[in-house]
Each structure stands twice: as structure tokens, then as C-alpha cells.
Amino acid sequence: MEESRKKRKRYGGGGQGNRPSLDGSDEESMPLPNPMVGFNLPGYSGSSVTRMLSKLDTGPPFFYYENVARAPKGEWAKISRNLFDIQPEFVDSLHLCAAARKRGYIHNLPIENRSPLLPLPPKTIFEAFPHYKKWWPSWDTRTHLNCLQTCVASAKLTDRIQRALVSSSNPPPKSVQKDVMDECKKWNLIWVGKNKVAPLEPHEMELLLGFPRDHTRGVGKTQRYKSLGNSFQVDTVAYHLSVLRRMFPNGVRVLSLFTGIGGGEVALHKLGIHMRVVISVEIGEASKKIFRSWWDQTQTGTLIEIDDVKSLTNDRVASFISQFGGFDLVIGGSPCNNLAGSNRHHRDGLEGKHSALFYDYVRILNFVKSTMAGRRM
Ligand code: SAH
Fold first, then answer.
1. Is residue 336 flagged as an active site residue?
2. In this structure, are strands 89-92 and 329-332 parallel, antiparallel, or unpaired?
């Protein structure tokens, strides 16, 4: 709590560029739209946005940057300032699938003529998991799950809930219902038996996030939860990236920073966009293993893996650019550890140890842009 209350450095006079004034009273604030559907989403026709990017800001190279929507005050303004003042697109994946995921995306992709992945993902808990209906009490009125996190509830907690319900009347008193529902919402618990709640299994999270079943299989369960909790929601990202299909019928060359378990690549693959080259930068052993095994099973393009973004120097980027003739897409969501609300101890914003890796994304993107502009690629 101390950390999040700390006064943050204020930056004055940032160019407004493409960013319409969302709230004239405070240029640091970036109010989240309600409903959080970004510039447009399938099924939400009403408030589609048009935007004009300056010639300098449009691709190629195209770029796509992601992070948690609810960052500490002022952080999205700062992210935007570092990414050509382009306005973030805030989307809660709840509007597309059965689990919430509030994320901000800054990109220079066209936003017209997007198309969703088909078939559309299950939109409610019961559409995703019809077999749990049988155990679902009528007083649990959830239709969607909350954001999938990196860790799950302990057996101690689910046992305690079961004991409380077994010793209550049916339906339980309002106070017990409230207690149980608070925990169910906090931990995304589902009803798997009479009076019995449990966390989602990794393969259920894979389904909700748009990954193929067993995508994360082969590493420990804790690692599976961790990497799934950090990943993109594939249908959401695919909707934004869908415009690339028309532009690159022969495939794309991708610089993938903080690849994780490959949410961006799975999205491109599901869109039918061939990845000619992916330079994947990812430090986590488990995530690397998961991504590599998916790649080997599904892809024919060239994969080059780099561990630490810090070791991807500008010289190395330059040599990849000459080797492959440039990049079509620079994609990545840098670690949110110091931005996300669930981190009470080190929520120190972009300057925090992990979240500062954002500046490596900026460094590398700027280098790619200027090198490609210099070579007129
Ligand atoms: N978009 C990804 C997840 C990104 S989470 C997906 O769809 O799965 C951020 C990722 O950055 C994590 O996987 C983390 O392991 C990785 N990371 C953290 N520090 C890093 C570093 N120094 N270099 C490269 N990757 C790093």
C-alpha cells in the first residue's frame, strides 16, 4: 500500500500527437473506457473509432505493445509518450470470451476491417464448461470468470469452503453465500462437485485464453499457471493482428520480445499468417520450452531464440535486419510485475525492476524503425 500511495514523478508538456484529450482536467490520467472494448470489437458496432497516424508512425515495421490496463496513475501516459504518443486501446477480453482480462495495447496497425478468429470462443462460463452446470448453485450468478492469475487457490481454502457449506442449510445463509462468493471471485473457483469448488485446471485456462489444449503441458503445474497467467488472450490479440493477413500474403518476419508461451505467435498462426522468421526473446526456461515445442509441431519458418532482452544489442538487431531484410512486426508485452494491482509490495511502476524492461522494447523498436527507414525497407 505504501508503494502505491507514493507520489509519482510528474512529467509536463508531453506532446498530445494522436492522443485525443480524453480528460482535459489532468493530462496524466488515462481514463479507462466503459465498456472496455478498445477501438472496436466484434459485436460492438456502435462506437467504432477512426484514427489518423502520422506517416512516420505507420508501419512497416508494425508494432504491437501490451500491458495491464490498470497500471498506477500516469504510467500509461508515460508508455504512450515513449511510443510516439499513440493512444492505447484498452480492451477487457470479457467482451470476447468467458474470462476477464483488462489490457492496454499500443500499436500502429490499421483498425479498419479487422476480423475475429472463427469459431468465436465460448462467451460464458457455461458455454466453456457445460458440465459444471450440474454443480453450480443458483446463488452463484457469475457468467464470466475474473482475470486468470499466475497462481491458484490452495486446497486449504477450497476445503474450508466445502466444510462451511456442508455444515450450512441449503441454500446457505446470506452471510455464508457472500463469504463463499468473495473467495470464488477472488480465486476464480468453479463448482466441480456438490459443495465442492476448485481452481481451473491448466487446460481449462488454455481454452479460455485461446491456446490449443495441452499447449503448456510438459512443465510443472506451477509453471503452467504462471506462464498462462502472464500470457495474451489469443482471440483478443488475433482480432487486432488480423489486418496483417491482407498486407502480408507471403508471411511475416517477427521480432517477438518477451515471447512467453507465444500468445502472439499462436494468434498469427490461427489467423493463417505464415511466420517466415521469428526472433524470440524470452528468459524463462519453462516458457521457452513450451514455445519451442509448439513451434516445432506447427511451424516451418526460422526460429532464433535469445534469452535476455539485455543481450539483444542494437548491433545484433542490425545484423538480423541485414540477414532477413527487416521486420514486419515487433510484438511484445513487457513484464507487468511492478504495474499490476496484485503486487502490493513492488508496485513502483515503469521504473520498477521488471517493468523497466519496457524501455528495452522502446529501444529496440526505435532502432528497428530508424534502421529500416535508413535502408528504405
Ligand atoms: N505475451 C507473452 C507473455 C509476456 S509476460 C505471452 O503471450 O505468453 C513477460 C515475459 O517476459 C515473461 O515470460 C518473462 O519470463 C519475460 N522476461 C522477463 N524478463 C526478461 C528479460 N530480461 N529478457 C527476456 N524476457 C524476459
1. yes
2. unpaired
69, three cell numbers: 490496463
Instruction: Confirm or reject: Cβ of 65 under 6 Å from ligand 1.
Output: no
The mean predicted confidence, pLDDT, of the chain is 90
Which residues fall within 8 angstroms of residue 295, CB to CB, at 6 or more apart? Answer: 262, 265, 278, 303
Query: What φ, ψ does residue 264 adopt, rounded to 5°?
Result: -65, -40
In the chain, what is the greatest distance between 2 CA atoms, to the nearest angstrom? 74
- Residue 87 cell numbers, joined: 493512444
- Fold for 55-120+231-339+349-375, please state it: Rossmann fold (3.40.50)
Q: Which of the following is catalytic: 97, 147, 184, 336? A: 336
Query: What tens digit of pLDDT does each residue of 145-165 get?
Result: 999 999 999 999 999 999 999
How many whole angstroms separate alpha carbon 303 and alpha carbon 70?
33
Kind and range of the H or E element at 188?
A: none
pLDDT, tens digit, 9 for 90 and up, residues 80-90: 999 999 999 99
CA angle 358, 361, 364 (to 5 degrees): 150
Closest CA to 63 of 241, 267, 218: 241
What contacts 29, CB < 8 A, 6 or more positions away? 22, 23, 73, 74, 77
Pocket test for ligand 1, best of 148, 208, 230 (most atoms within 8 A of CB): 230
Q: Measure 284 CA to ligand 1 centroid, in angstroms.
A: 7
Residue range(s) of every CATH 3.40.50 domain in the chain: 55-120+231-339+349-375
Residues 6+ apart with CB under 8 A from 256: 262, 264, 265, 278, 279, 280, 281, 331, 332
Residue 357 above 80 pLDDT? yes
24: Cβ contacts below 8 Å, ≥ 6 apart: none
Residue 112, helix vs strand vs coil: coil
Give the C-alpha distances (Å, rounded to integers) separating 346 from 151, 222, 230: 17, 22, 17
| C-alpha–C-alpha distance, residues 302 and 279, integer Å | 8
Q: Is the CB of 281 under 6 A from ligand 1?
A: yes
